[in-house]
TrEMBL record:
Its main location: membrane. Gene3D superfamilies: MetI-like. It is found in: Cell inner membrane; Cell membrane. This is ABC transporter permease. Residues 85-273 form the ABC transmembrane type-1 domain. Coiled coil: none annotated. It holds the Pfam family BPD_transp_1.
Amino acid sequence: MPQTDQLPTRPTEAKTRPGRKPRLRLGSVIFAIAVTLIVLFVLAPLLVVAASSVTSSGYLKFPPQGFSLQWFGAAAENSKFVESFSTSIRLALGTMIISVVCGVLAAYAINRYPGRIANFLEQLFLSPLMLPAVVFGLGFLFVLSAFGYRGSFSGALLAHVIVASPFVIRSTLAGFRSMDSRLEEAARSLGAGPLRSFFTVVLPGVAGSVSSGAIFAFVISFDEAVVTLFLTGPGFETLPVTIFTYVQYSNDPTVAAVSTVLLIFCAVLVAVMMRLGKDGDER
């Protein structure tokens, strides 16, 4: 057979010379600058608050004048801040526990029995994520006032559970849907009952998602201010509401010190949540 002539191939120019760095594209530089500006824009208010909390002057001012930690001591000695902080912690813990119990059961039922009813319930349970908080606060005000629970801890707990439980349902539902359903069927076939298979097979498989949802519920309840403004009373006030009312009548850096403590507290919780979510994904 006649041999066909092969065309000479040109040497590829993809390889870079040793010791020579590839040039950065203009688009990558613009993208990096844009991301940096966005991050600075987001962090700027937080940095301003943190810097204002260590000023030595007697009023809020940026840039701060001098350095002093006296306002953190003033915040710790203020009984109103301490009491409202204790109330927020108790309210957030109660919201987290109830939201986890209700959210895990709701997510399991939606995933276990799919259909039109399950889709409707999923949209209903997740609706607080899409509706304005002012609408919820006004609705809770009318309902709780009608039953005599306005300005009480139990009424605020009910409202916070409704606001925070969608975060638990959404996180746990994602864990259930990514889990192999045959594991539960295998446990049932080996003689485990519904409760035993749920607590020994199903629940450990979504532990990371449940933990993330629980921390989400705690943070949402602890930081909730819009809905809680409609529900506070003479004997019940959370820390975000106390901060909101404090800045209306005072201009000293005590509120900046309290806000800085809240920033650190929430940052630690978010870091723990991300760690738990990462551990759950590795499992």
